[in-house]
Amino acid sequence: MKKILVIHGPNLNLLGEREPGVYGSDAYDSINSEITERALKREMHCEVFQSNHEGEIIDTLHLARKNFDGVIINAGAYTHYSYAIRDAISAIKIPVVEVHMSNIHAREEFRRHSVIAPVCCGQIAGFGKASYLLAVDALNEILKD
Length: 145
Fold this sequence. Notes:
This protein is an alpha/beta fold. The protein has a five-stranded parallel β-sheet with strand order 2-1-3-4-5, sandwiched between helices. Helices cover 39% and strands 19% of the residues. It has helices spanning 20-23, 28-41, 54-67, 83-92, 130-143, and strands at residues 2-8, 44-50, 70-74, 96-100, 122-125. The chain has one domain: Dehydroquinase, class II (Rossmann fold, 3-Layer(aba) Sandwich), CATH 3.40.50.9100.
C-alpha cells in the first residue's frame, strides 16, 4: 500500500473558524477525515501533520523522504516566501503536490506567487477542501507508475 503525507502549514489548524468566506466552514478534523477516507478508497495510507513552525515543516519533509511515497502540502503563507521549504521539497525526491483551498491567483498580489511551485509536481488551488481530495487523486495517478 502506498503511503502519503498531508502537511498543513500555519493557521490551517483553524479551518472552520478562520475566514469561512475564504476557506469554508468545514472543520480541520472533518477535512482531514475526508482526506484520509479518499486515500483509503484509492488504497493508500494517509497521515496528516500540521505545524505553524517552518522548521517543523522542513523536518517533517526530510523524514517523509524515507517513510512516504508522496506528499500533499498546503504551506499557507510560507508558500510565498519560504525558500527553506522550497529547498526541502527539492531535496526529498518524492512527488509533492501543492494545495491551496482558495484561488491564490485571484487574491492579494503577494499570494499570487509561489516559491514552492517550481519544485512541486503540480498545484491545485481554488476548490476549497476538494483541493486536497483532488491532490489525493493526483498522487494516486502519479504513484501508479
